Give the backbone structure.
Amino acid sequence: MRYIIFTDLDGSLLNHSDYSFEEAKDMISFLKSKNFPIVIVTSKTKNEVLNYQKQLSINDPFIVENGAAIFIPQEGGELKKIQLGKDYETIRKFMEKIKDRYFVKGFSDMSIDEIVAYTGLSYENAKIASKREFSEPFVIKDERDLTQIEKLAEKEGLKIMKGGRFYHCMSIDQDKGKAVKKLIDLYKKDNEKIKTVGLGDNYNDIPMLKEVDIPILIPRYNNKFIDFSLRNLIKAPYPGSRGWSESLKRVFNGS
């Protein structure tokens, strides 16, 4: 049986505060030794994920910007793209319509220094994060306006999703679960006997957790879980990379 690990980054494989995966390194080495793919499923961009793949020394398929696109490595270093979301230009046109009326500020409206302040990323990583392809992270002055914004977004074929640090504007027909399901189907076409594991900590991870055989919910940085239940849901004992690693140990130890 080959396991496929689908994982969120921020607050899951990566710690919320310092983006470290130090406490997950031994488990990552174990997964790689078994040839179990580690599929990153994140709100981050393609280039951000490629940077993390280098740090993790992996070259598996990955899913970006909350299910907007799947990237599959090909021979020669090329990436095959399967796009599920709308282009960034469409997202920004909508954001321009609403940003002044509802005091909404997206990544395109922020300086790199502002993105650094909101995220805690380094300046260089914040520059990479600012280059969006399919979605727009944003902050809002008054969350009571979200209901009206959601209605306006729906008319444009868009939706608003809450992430760890930001709200995200994206295509209405995309989410992490749809992208994960599509990628699972591609693995199954290769006639592999697979079992899927999903790890996430936030509401945008719920669609992914519903699509896998073994869903694992990681507590947020404040040690509290989001309000979500599933019949076979496993709850990790710790936040971040430590909880990520410990919960996978339990899966593979059969406990």
Notes: The longest strand covers residues 194-200. The mean pLDDT is 94. The domain at 88-171 is CATH 3.30.980.20 (Threonyl-tRNA Synthetase; Chain A, domain 2). DSSP finds nine helices and twelve strands in the chain.
